[in-house]
Amino acid sequence: MTNAPDLPQHDFTLRDALDATRGWDDETIQLDDELLEDDRFDEFGEADDFESGYDDADPEELTVGAQELAERHALRRVAALRTELEDITEVEYRQLRLEKVVLVGVWTGGTVTDAENSMAELAALAETAGSEVLEAVFQRRQSPDPATFIGRGKVEAIREIVQATGADTVICDGELAPSQLRNLEDKIKVKVVDRTALILDIFAQHAKSKEGQAQVELAQLQYMKQRLRGWGGNLSRQAGGRAAGGDGIGGRGPGETKIETDRRRINTKIAKLRRELKEMRGTRDVKRQSRRRNHIPSVAIAGYTNAGKSSLLNRLTDAGVLVEDALFATLDPTTRRTTTADGRVYTMSDTVGFVRHLPHDLVEAFRSTLEEVADSDLLLHVVDGSHPDPEGQIAAVRQVLAEIEATKVPEIIVINKADAADPLVISRLLAREPHSVVVSAKTGEGIDDALRMIESELPRPQVEFDVLLPYERGDLVNRIHQEAEIGSLEHTGDGTLVVGRANADLAGELAAYAR
Fold it and tell me: 131 FRET partner, CA 20 to 30 A, in 13, 27, 169, 362?
């Protein structure tokens, strides 16, 4: 065996190693003559940039919603890729690890289909939060077990499922008491989360505006405040003397001061958030009063989450807000100004989506935002026509509307996703809800019918007028186009002759030019 000769020492870099290999196999590459004569290839045999398939569009041309969606999808899990570097010529890909969860539900009423739909919705919520669902089980009980939610025997079965699947989280389809949460975690030996905490986590991920983030934080603190006892396993307690079973001298502590301190800090933070939200609510009220002063009608879009509210807003007003096939994709309300076919101005607002068993703390925290629905002149109640239980969606939304006292607002049922819905389901909904319209925000089907119904339901001006406006009062003509309902308009030699209906304020200014 001979010793290898001494070689000059150089710092190794992957780029230099790859550059050194260029051209090794050039002699074996035989390109087709017809391919070389193709205008799409330059003199080096490489395709022009404009045929490479890359999108060089200016990112500034994207809508706000498209930019937010691109940002949200900037980091996604890639399947079948490992973190180990297998070849030096490949780029190292790192896999985004998702939580592996097992879903657990308790079926206390309704049909089996209702229980399956509830579990399917819980699975969609879990995937939206960023987890991978491994297994889903539910059981029939008259009421949840007060100690473990699912019963002692089922806890052991869930523990075996967790160990077999390698799950690291269990999500329960219900709101757990602190004692239930603690008992389940002690027996199953993994993290346990209830439905309320899951929804709060999704809201925390998707809230973008300052007001939305403050509302979510307020709801989280209110939820956490009630469950400090469930997370306080190592808090100091009053020990007592040795005769009382304590540690004796040196073991007497100050009591449960840790939990009291945490509760006091949470109360202080809650009070601060409520003051901030009150100030933000004042700003929202000023904008709302400005619309009322100018007699601008408002239309609110509400409905179940992922029913297509943002898509409908984009189709009706070209708002360009974020659209994603996920639950609670948009939380922050969006208001856009639009006009009717005859020129009347009105606003259209998108609101946060609803869901079954929406946490009460969230409803209270988002009350200022949901008041946009209660103060609107018309409500577009969007329903997913392709959902397995659209009637259940309608009932859940109306339950939340009743909590915010918005049941007196005129309502139009908008059955969305007509392109994917069963015609029999649509017929059933039309028979159940006569004051409804069928649309598809994706294809544009029925949008014209929806606009005509919206315009017919908007509040009409009450005062009739018949005026002859001089041509120097073009400002009044412009206001008539924006705020009034024009019956006839004619330009004469003496001025503009207008007949129509207007609100009381505008009619008072037009009275001086009445014929």
Answer: 362
Count CB-CB contacts under 10 A for residue 196. Answer: 22
Q: Residue 370 and residue 303: Cα distance in Å, rounded? A: 12
Instruction: For 447-479, write each residue's pLDDT tens digit.
Output: 999 999 998 888 877 788 888 988 888 888 888
Residue-wise pLDDT for 235-264, tens only, equals: 555 555 555 455 555 555 555 566 777 888
Contacts of 416 (CB under 8 A, 6+ apart): 307, 308, 311, 312, 382, 383, 384, 385, 439, 440, 441
Token readout for 184 is 């389940």
Joined together, the tokens standing for residue 241 give 């003397």
C-alpha–C-alpha distance, residues 297 and 136, integer Å: 47
CB 309 within 8 A of CB 353: yes
- Fill in the DSSP letter of residue 47: B
* Residue stretches of the chain with pLDDT short of 50: 1-5, 7, 27-29, 31, 35-36, 40-57, 59, 78-95, 230-233, 244
pLDDT of 428 reads 93
> What sign for the dihedral angle of Cα 459, 394, 432, 422?
positive
Going from the C-alpha of 52 to that of each of 6, 8, 47, 64, the distances in angstroms are 46, 41, 7, 27
What tokens were used for 302? Answer: 């509400």
C-alpha dist (Å) from residue 228 to 225, 237, 261:
6, 15, 11
Exposure on the CB side of residue 362, measured as CA atoms within 13 A: 24
Instruction: Return all residues near 498 (Cβ < 8 A) that are at least 6 apart.
Output: 465, 466, 467, 469, 477, 480, 486, 488, 489, 490
Q: What pTM was computed for the model?
A: 0.70
Q: From residue 422, how far is each of 112, 386, 388, 389, 445 by CA, in Å?
A: 21, 7, 10, 12, 15
| Total Cβ atoms within 10 A of residue 240 | 13
**Six-digit token pair at 153?**
């025997």
Query: What is the residue type of 218?
Result: L
CA dihedral sign, ordered 92, 93, 95, 96: positive
Residue 92 in contact with residue 83, Cβ under 8 Å?
yes
Question: What is the overall mean pLDDT for the chain?
Answer: 78
115: nearest Cα among 101, 136, 130: 136
